[in-house]
Amino acid sequence: xxxxxxxILTLYLNEAGLLEERSIxxxxxxxxxxxxxxxxxxxxKDVNYTGNTIHAWFYDPDSKTWSRRWTSFPNMIYDRCRIQxxxxxxxxxxxxxxxxxxxxxxxxxxxxxxxHRTLSKDVRFKGYLPATKYIxxxxxxxxxxxxxxxxxxxxxxxxxxxxxxxxxxxKDGQLHxxxxxxxxxxxxxxxxxxxxxxxxxxxxxxxSNRYIAQQGIHIKLTSGRVHDYRMLVxxxxxxxxxxxxxxxxxxxxxxxxxxxxxxxxxxxxxxxLKEWLGDESKAEQVKQEAEExxxxxxxxxxxxxGRLCELALDLAIDxxxxxxxxxxxxxxxxxxxxxxxxxxVYRKAIIRxxxxxxxxxxxxxxxKAKVKPAAVSDVQAGFxxx
Length: 386
Known about the structure:
The protein is an alpha+beta fold. It has three domains: 5-104, Rossmann fold, CATH 3.40.50.20; 112-128 and 220-352, 2-Layer Sandwich (D-amino Acid Aminotransferase, Chain A, domain 1); 132-215. The chain is built from ten helices and 17 strands. It has helices at residues 22-35, 87-98, 112-120, 138-147, 197-201, 269-277, 280-305, 335-339, 343-370, 377-380; strands at 5-9, 38-42, 47-48, 53-60, 65-72, 76-79, 132-134, 150-155, 165-169, 175-180, 186-192, 211-215, 227-235, 241-250, 265-268, 310-317, 323-329. Helix 1 links the parallel strand 1 (5-9) and strand 2. Helix 1 (22-35) crosses helix 9 (343-370) and helix 6 (269-277) crosses helix 7 (280-305). The longest helix has 28 residues, at 343-370.
């Protein structure tokens, strides 16, 4: 019997064909073999649109080597493409437009601002969302600072902590500004007056670069380092949303973000939350509430945007145990669990998309079997439609 095939869609990082998550794809290929699922990796650049074939990458777990060969389209596509400022992202748009009718495990999620507005429509989530405004001009930032002593400025399509500014209003009226540039480099902290804010922000081109201003949550540990929590919510092998795990992230010294790529470190949620709240019972209550929130948000966003298979929620927890959703990441990394020493969570994080892919394949296969022969011709040309 022919095995179902999963194609992992990604983007090259440079002209040399570097793949960002090659080691993860190797683990997925090995795990897929054990589950009865064939896996290959490809990018939009590898697609022959005329022949509807793919010059794909195949990993051999036995020889531990990669090779390429032409192949037909897979039964399902797992989209791992992250936003990048290059022509390669334009190639991705063309691929999605041309082959959008195929079976994807996950559809595109919108930008930070649109996701915030979508979640704001549901009364269940309003109490978990920091106040957020779209920056149309510098007055928006000034208005936010009049309401909140701490404000973060974030690009709506930014990832990995790039281009984020933290502005804190001091008791003497001065504004303390820290941040990271687009290359994740820590910028020199400065104190400026409120009158100097507009000129300081001018080079950042917040309006043209599409930024939001977000109410800041005080999350500095006694060490002075910021921390937050990365929750991974995934579909399981029965097609249901489930929290795979949640780990704490501690930012590097002088960093305003906790991102591991920016020099941060990881810890188990239980240990970090107990230290932060000083109460083990309270920490357990907060953890349970956060997990219920994560599943509810994932299900709601899927209803709003189409099929999804996993989401990462970045959560801040204040000193009182209040939970705040900082942002949602549709293409989450898994390394935080490995670094936190949670090997079983890390293993599940890799396997669950494969288990869900098999469930989805069997669901579609079952539905196809029930279709009358006259209606099947549309499918026989190759690919299942959503």
